[in-house]
Amino acid sequence: MRDRKEMLAAAGTDTRLCHVGNDPMSYHGFVNPPVVHASTVLFPDVQTMETRSQKYTYGTRGTPTTDALCEAIDELEGSAGTILVPSGLAAITVPFLAFLSPGDHALIVDSVYGPCRHFCDTMLTRLGVTVEYYDPDIGSGIEALIRPNTRLVHTEAPGSNTFEMQDIRAISEAAHRHGCVVTMDNTWATPIYFKPLDFGVDVSIHAATKYPSGHSDILMGTVSANAAHWPQLKEANGTLGICGSPDDSYMILRGLRTMNLRLEHHNRSALSVATWLEARDDVARVLHPGLPSFLGHDIWKRDFKGASGIFSFVLKVDDRESFKPKARAFLNELSLFGLGYSWGGYESLAVMVDLSDRKIRKAPAEGPVIRLQIGLENVEDIIADLERGFRAAAGA
């Protein structure tokens, strides 16, 4: 047991996921950490209370349950510290508020998660931050966009809905030459398939709602920082009073144990479906980084260890007036696929993507973009359901 930490550092992914954030001897030998519900924490004396010189001081500052999850995420990310927040969107907004001030300039990738764009264009702008969107393919060329007051560069790879890849290392190196903080939304890959801090990112963001949970019943975000940026992130989180609940933390810990096994299944199934779609005449393009035909495939192959279960395809349509009718007919005919937002759960989902908010990377012209979350069902059943959708679209 003395060498457990060193052993786990060299162990395989499944082994690590079974044991990170897990110290049975601290809990009388019980395998899973207890769910500790807390607001008030008592102090043994006034001096300890005044100096806060004990591990736990108030429920918003952590409990043994939330700490167990943070420790597990730190092990996976290689981070100096992790905070828990109530949603994936909060995992973006909290570090933005931590590192940006009035008068600052922020560079945000144009393929960013839609609610992040809304936050930037409304609240962040209202607080006096200038927001500029950039092409996801820019790479080291981002240096030309950096101003004297640029403080933060936000990345997301692959990009939301259209899955553009980014050269994260090149962007990070350019940003750091000018003292910028680099943040990355890494929800698609999880730290199993990509570790942002190893590629120069300062703050790694995840919607734990997705694959860490895995069952479509938990909302949570995690934000992990390197040593240089951890104190400021932690201070801002405490100031904002935002925290994750112990019950949800317990469930995310539980989901982590099987995350790699589920990701492997998502990976195989999604690539099978994407390959099948690519061969169809009624599909204009398949937007999946794992396909050799995809524009960003070389970056994905170089930097990532795998692909998750979400990607998009462009339904081939003859005229723009048919975009929505064809897409609606396709989606309404599906029965195995649910029509719902989010992803990362065990069930397959489908949604028509709205790209009208893009500034630079515009929507494909060939037809509507339909995003698929490939769940854990049998691939032959998934394909049969999609075939029904294509038949309906053809008749619309």
Automatic annotation (TrEMBL):
Keyword annotations from UniProtKB, A to Z: Lyase, Pyridoxal phosphate
InterPro entries (alphabetical): Cys/Met-Metab_PyrdxlP-dep_enz, Cys_b_lyase_bac, PyrdxlP-dep_Trfase, PyrdxlP-dep_Trfase_major, PyrdxlP-dep_Trfase_small
Species in which this protein is naturally found: Ciceribacter ferrooxidans
Origin organism lineage: Bacteria, Pseudomonadati, Pseudomonadota, Alphaproteobacteria, Hyphomicrobiales
EC number: 4.4.1.8
GO molecular function: cysteine-S-conjugate beta-lyase activity; pyridoxal phosphate binding
Similarity remark: Belongs to the trans-sulfuration enzymes family.
Required co-factors: pyridoxal 5'-phosphate
Enzyme class: lyase
Catalysed transformations (reactions): L,L-cystathionine + H2O = L-homocysteine + pyruvate + NH4(+)
Chain positions with N6-(pyridoxal phosphate)lysine modification: K210
Domain of life of the native organism: Bacteria
Alphabetical list of Pfam families matching this protein: Cys_Met_Meta_PP (PF01053)
Name this protein carries in UniProt: Cystathionine beta-lyase
GO BP term, pick one: transsulfuration
